[in-house]
Amino acid sequence: MIIKAVIGVLCAAVVLAIGIVIGHFGINNSSAPSWLNDVAKDVDESLIEKFLAEVDTIHIQENLRELTDVPHMATTPGDEKTVQTMLRRWQDADTGLDDAWREEYNVYLSFPDPNNPNKVTVVDAANTVQHSIREREKAYTSDQDDPEVVQPYAAYSPAGHAKGKLVYANQGKPSDYEQLSQTLNLTGTIAITRYGGAGRGAKAINAAPYGVVGVLVYTDPLDINDGLMSDTNETYPHSWYMPPSGVERGSFNRDFGDLLTPYLAAKEETYRIPPENIVGIPPIPIQPIGFEDAYILICALGGDAAPSEWQGAFNCTYNYGGPGFKPTSEFNNSDVKMDIYNKEVIKNSANVMGVIRGSVEPDRYVIYGNHRDSWVHGAIDPSSGTSVMLEITRVLGRMVKQGIWRPRRSIIFGSWGAEEFGLIGSAEYTEQYFAKLSERTIAYINVDIAVFANATLRASAMPSLQNVIFKASKEVNAPGESSTSVYEAWKLHSNRTSPTHGVIPRLGYLTGAGSDYAAFVHYLGISSIDMSYTYDRSKTNARIYPAYHTAYDTFDYASKYIDPGFVSHQAVARTAGNILIRLADSLLLPFNCSDYAEILEDYLNTAVTLYQQQLEAHKISIEPLKRAVAMFRTNAQQLEKMIHNSDLANETPLKVRRINDQLMLLDRAFLDPLAFPDKYAFRHVIWTSSSAGKATFPGLADAFAQAESSGLDSDWDKVHYHLSVVSQAIEGAASTLADVI
Amino acid sequence: MIIKAVIGVLCAAVVLAIGIVIGHFGINNSSAPSWLNDVAKDVDESLIEKFLAEVDTIHIQENLRELTDVPHMATTPGDEKTVQTMLRRWQDADTGLDDAWREEYNVYLSFPDPNNPNKVTVVDAANTVQHSIREREKAYTSDQDDPEVVQPYAAYSPAGHAKGKLVYANQGKPSDYEQLSQTLNLTGTIAITRYGGAGRGAKAINAAPYGVVGVLVYTDPLDINDGLMSDTNETYPHSWYMPPSGVERGSFNRDFGDLLTPYLAAKEETYRIPPENIVGIPPIPIQPIGFEDAYILICALGGDAAPSEWQGAFNCTYNYGGPGFKPTSEFNNSDVKMDIYNKEVIKNSANVMGVIRGSVEPDRYVIYGNHRDSWVHGAIDPSSGTSVMLEITRVLGRMVKQGIWRPRRSIIFGSWGAEEFGLIGSAEYTEQYFAKLSERTIAYINVDIAVFANATLRASAMPSLQNVIFKASKEVNAPGESSTSVYEAWKLHSNRTSPTHGVIPRLGYLTGAGSDYAAFVHYLGISSIDMSYTYDRSKTNARIYPAYHTAYDTFDYASKYIDPGFVSHQAVARTAGNILIRLADSLLLPFNCSDYAEILEDYLNTAVTLYQQQLEAHKISIEPLKRAVAMFRTNAQQLEKMIHNSDLANETPLKVRRINDQLMLLDRAFLDPLAFPDKYAFRHVIWTSSSAGKATFPGLADAFAQAESSGLDSDWDKVHYHLSVVSQAIEGAASTLADVI
């Protein structure tokens, strides 16, 4: 009986236990919802390893081959072909994205007239042509013979006919024309300038006030070919150097975005300003030429010898010009004549957009983009970047289609149109979706030219992103290396000593508008990254890779001279993709605001060193700026301490979201839409462009330079104004990092 | 045996069941975190009932008594006393908030000189004074005798001495001076104008181009006292009407915020523009006077009779002026002389801030505010609102201190300083915390003058808030009523027929800058509400309550004539507090974007009716605007359908947060910081101020009026520009309502 009772109790205990187990695990507990694990999920390191392993050089190479099949200048049939390529890839059932579509804008472009090419000639007094500048680059392969290769020209140069004596104006900087005008009367002259030192259009804008009637621009072999200039054995196809007839094309406008629709997306019925109201474009004709012709013109110039800083690599003395050619030259008394037939036209340009929808926070976007349009075949610019983007989307798309991955946040890919004409596709996109993108975008990653050269990573970004860039670059092998990381190679080539981190790679700043990050950084205030593989600067003086914007930027050039084996492309794809996955998947955004504080302190120290004494002399206190930066540092530290003390995976998802919003929106707090009225769409008071050339707050630096130069009270007032603007912005940003109110 | 077996099975079943129960409910399920209920919690209706029950007329009355104890013009000792009152209340251990503090700004104010009062006199050719305008209002109670009662003056009128022949310029509108100048040469004259029709400062700004050297302004009994003007039996203290010596003070600046620090918070070291660069202030002296004196001056005027629309309530004909007085008057040939000694000074003004920290989403703010400063005792303006705010914070604070309530979101209370000088405290606050407030604020509720009169609720708001205002007002009894709700009484007094809702109360729009909502609506784009109890317009023509900005706006006046028993104050406190709790506690924000769509459609219909024909004649298509509004409607409906089909309490909290962010940020999408360069801090393209007087898109309406008047192509271009601006803004807003990308 006792045994029976014991057995009974034991049985009952077993049954009870079974009941408890069933009750605990078997019944859907209404207080333990199914989404609980999803919202707490962090980045999956094994998935990143899988991604890195799958990024493949052959795919990148074949992407590049397809993209560079024909010239694809914006809005040409070749451009439409690449639109179709992008759509087909991104809509692929096995390796595509969730969705892909095109978005179109009607944008203001400028082209030469194929039926009436631009001409530059040397003519004598009877208008007899003594020399004609080459109208097309010399063809070394069939690529360059394609009839779709656009004649070298200066987009947005006005059409017109100019004739005058030639002068040499160095780089066409204001100081160059100023100096030249002290020797010569420039009225009625044509100025020849070399690339570099000033913006393309600026070379004409700076010239016009002196009465110059036309400008030529060329690439001096000193600045691009390390001095070499023979096409028989030195330049492409024998090396990466620009052949003598090579010409850098380009857009010669100052502002980015469609020029007729400032701050408005360029839709069909959108208001357009009258073209005569466009600012920042050349007021006089300008035309780029090859150094083969520039050599003939410059070495024939009369007048005094230009100073040594003006001398290039030609084997002659660069004279100012008499104005005009020297008496001993065959061109004695001749003029240079420019006949420019550029036409402005409103054309339909497409962005191609693709998206992977986020699972947990679909309303948070990580955007990755590059432009699609080139000047000619654009193997390096931009197709190296597009090839990388397509390889990233192939690998990620396949993981999505296989159901093994879906990012926490949404990822948007943008293949921008008409970048070469002034970042137009990306700018119009930010104008059309201003509110949505401002509110929801975590970060923008731009990979335009993915590989300039094979030596080292180059990355520019907001400082808050330094850490994730470092982390990703440590996990990727340097091209062709098995034990050195991208990070190590980078640190070797370019480094700085951080007060916090010691010796680290030098991250650049996004202070300009060199690619499609511009609208994201400056107009929207979105934390952005621009990256590529690039040169060992100890080995070349080239301003940029020598085939840039020429007809020689082809698949052959890229695969032979820029990245044989596509290993640098692969390294960039791996690094950028790694960053992208971390931004999209990390529970806590991988942003570090103390790294931002370090750069603000660095800027502050520079400002104190350079300006404090003179500011005090003008009764302007720099103390508010010091207080603002100190407050930013304190609040950044407190936020990080709070994060450190939190168990984010187990707290309410709204707490993580709150912190992530603080991190995401940090750069937005630096925007001031009224601080720089003369700089189109520049609103970020820390990173806006500056002409003062100081590594400090740009508005302050420019205003200070102006005030120091003019000495006017009203200019010192502007210094004070910019000091207040930047102090308030930093304090405002700091307050967003503080505890919630 | 069978029975035993059955019993055994039954016992086992019972034990199993017990086990299941224990397992299910008795063991803390590790996958069911403690915060799960908190994040899904919705507004507690019983708590709202408790709140409504506790709002008490006696407390409001005693708040008002304390706040109006002494005059408390901005930055005076009386103002500091109210700062201390607010801090003491909000820091109270039993009924206070979580935290309260003061925030200070150094702001540009304008005061008369107590040692050298402004004088207006009638002088003869020998400069002998024939009549002196009263310098202080007549005292009927000891309140008005307080030496701290500021002399009536026009803040921001320049100091100066003006002398000239008097003319009558009606309301000082541009058309008034235009008309007057067709009869008279206005050079060197002094113009007397009545309040109404044009902004205060505008009466002087409009006058100056005609050579007018000084302006007087008074309140005509027609416009405020329903014609009554005797202090022996008709006006206060016998009724609510303004006594003959009563003078409406005011600020005479056009723009809001500190005038020296546009877009910058006015801290000690902030950059200040030179005072001579201030725009929108009177260029010539202006001084307000009582109708007692105005009567003497106007009835003595010579010249032709002014038109009937210019005639007021005086028992004489309002003549234009000869210029000057009529020959039969004792003032024949006399001048009016103005000696204005106003001084501008930078003074320290405080906002008092208080906060209840949110439990679940502390980084979402509902802001409730009112200004604290008055012109004199300010019983109605603003202390009626402050009394209401203090009663709301007392009831809510007590619930917090007792631990029975903590809102889901944070609530911020603002007691703004220096509103009377141009909404300065609230504007500086929005400038200092621009980024944080833009990113996190759900809504702003403004209750300035809580009670103008006892007849009906008046509320103006963004249309998305209509529904929560209606809901709250249905739950509150109309003052002194037990069966009629505030909503019903409101609908009776002022209604419209909505295509969706049928007959509903008429909600106003926040198109102006009449109180501290201005910076929140126009500068930050935050969905806002401004509300009060107000008149039965069928019973009075008064522009506003007659003691407005006079020395008669006292506790005695308020409690006797405006709201005996404080029942309207109570109704406003209950309604506003109800709205506040719903905004702070609702799981899903009580915003309705279809109601926004309805108003946009209404605006569109008006625009089509008024403008389409002429737009087409000028080759401007209105189609983009139609498409944008249609897209807004479609996306609003889809969002609401998605909400309707969701079980928000059981889905991831991030989904609710996503929808709430869409709702919260909707108004932000309408901001354009560059669309209205001539209107300080006006950025909201739907609600910005307009002079065209049409219930449609303001930028379009104003541009159209200008183009229609001038006929210039460049003005039609501006019409097209504004059409594009508003179309893009609405489309941008619509896209934020769409599915996530």
Automatic annotation (TrEMBL), chains A, B:
<keyword id="KW-0325">Glycoprotein</keyword>
<dbReference type="GO" id="GO:0006508">
    <property type="term" value="P:proteolysis"/>
</dbReference>
<dbReference type="GO" id="GO:0004180">
    <property type="term" value="F:carboxypeptidase activity"/>
</dbReference>
<dbReference type="GO" id="GO:0046872">
    <property type="term" value="F:metal ion binding"/>
</dbReference>
<dbReference type="InterPro" id="IPR039373">
    <property type="entry name" value="Peptidase_M28B"/>
</dbReference>
<dbReference type="InterPro" id="IPR036757">
    <property type="entry name" value="TFR-like_dimer_dom_sf"/>
</dbReference>
<dbReference type="GO" id="GO:0005886">
    <property type="term" value="C:plasma membrane"/>
</dbReference>
<keyword id="KW-0862">Zinc</keyword>
<feature type="domain" description="Transferrin receptor-like dimerisation">
    <location>
        <begin position="620"/>
        <end position="737"/>
    </location>
</feature>
<feature type="domain" description="PA">
    <location>
        <begin position="163"/>
        <end position="251"/>
    </location>
</feature>
<comment type="similarity">
    <text>Belongs to the peptidase M28 family. M28B subfamily.</text>
</comment>
<dbReference type="InterPro" id="IPR007484">
    <property type="entry name" value="Peptidase_M28"/>
</dbReference>
<protein>
    <submittedName>
        <fullName>Uncharacterized protein</fullName>
    </submittedName>
</protein>
<dbReference type="Pfam" id="PF04253">
    <property type="entry name" value="TFR_dimer"/>
</dbReference>
<dbReference type="InterPro" id="IPR046450">
    <property type="entry name" value="PA_dom_sf"/>
</dbReference>
<dbReference type="GO" id="GO:0008237">
    <property type="term" value="F:metallopeptidase activity"/>
</dbReference>
<keyword id="KW-0378">Hydrolase</keyword>
<keyword id="KW-0645">Protease</keyword>
<dbReference type="InterPro" id="IPR007365">
    <property type="entry name" value="TFR-like_dimer_dom"/>
</dbReference>
<dbReference type="InterPro" id="IPR003137">
    <property type="entry name" value="PA_domain"/>
</dbReference>
<keyword id="KW-0482">Metalloprotease</keyword>
<dbReference type="Pfam" id="PF02225">
    <property type="entry name" value="PA"/>
</dbReference>
<feature type="domain" description="Peptidase M28">
    <location>
        <begin position="351"/>
        <end position="559"/>
    </location>
</feature>
<dbReference type="Pfam" id="PF04389">
    <property type="entry name" value="Peptidase_M28"/>
</dbReference>
<keyword id="KW-0479">Metal-binding</keyword>
